[in-house]
Amino acid sequence: MQFFDDSLHPENMEKVVITVAPYAPEWMPEDFPEDIPVTMDQQVQKAVDCYEAGATVLHLHVRELDGKGSKRLSKFNELIGGVREAVPDMIIQVGGSISFAPESDGEAALWLSDDTRHMLAELSPRPDQVTVAINTIQMNIMELLYPEYREGTSLADPLYEAAYSEMTVPAGPAWVTEHLKRLQANNIQPHFQLTGIHAYETLERMVRKGLYKGPLNLTWIGIGGGFDGPNPFNMFNFINRVPDGCTLTSESLFKNMLPLNTIALAMGLHPRVGTEDTIIDQHGKRFTSVQQIQQTVRIAHELGREIASGKEARDIYRIGVQYDTVEQTLLANGMAPNRKPGQKGVPRRD
Predict the structure, then answer these.
(1) pTM of the predicted model, to two decimals?
(2) Which of 37, 62, 121, 131 could form a disulfide with 43 if both were Cys (CB 3.0 to 4.6 A apart)?
(3) pLDDT (tens digit, 9 = 90+) per residue, 304-330?
């Protein structure tokens, strides 16, 4: 991304698009009963509360009545329909793993099969986005969950700790290519969840080959455990590499989330909050998704940035937009054109 002398002036920045992930699939409801919804009505109401607090993107997972993450597409359809009716302007972003909770004590925490994840392109009502990972990688969410963070929660159980420590994100080239094809055919926008520069480079190669022709909405994930660690230099290196025409959201976990989100807000980027990322504040006290949104809104206002409405967020994310050619895609996302046969030097943007 390019930064000019006035790029840090709030009047030259897009409005803030706040993503909230309030369904916390790695936790059990008893870990934070005040804020982890279980019934369908509670899950819909959680979306309403988050929208009214200022979040315009809902990262969506679903629970069964026993509190475990649901793997039933019918439950996703039900929740999407309820949210769509209650807050029609909110961008619905389905978590592409569906649910990675272990089925029982001691079992591995697994993402669903390729075939099942492909079926996210057939959800009805249709979500606005589905998150898509690039490149298979370790996702050890326990690596930075220090003992004091999980004390008194289900993740303090050694069996659950072992299950989540061994989790991987399956996102090989054949699956990603097919998944993007299906999502685009159903006019569902992928939101790319990127674990570092290597993941972005693979995505750029796919764009240059014409395997994806649409807006680049990216999230940099600094959670360690196989992903980039929550080091500001990792974040800045990533920012420096991504193209000018993408949107970029910061995602981290626990006490790293607030400082990295504040950096993102100051630089004109976007934040993600919610109990999927932290259930405590900087003082170690329980911190609800709505409280996290309210804090983010306050910081944004202190920095002079306005919060996007649902309709404004749709324009910023270019929801529903696709491009016809590789050249259009590169230009719209602020990327240099592909090299033409025999062309010397660096291909220049028109």
Answers:
(1) 0.96
(2) 37
(3) 999 999 999 999 999 999 999 999 999
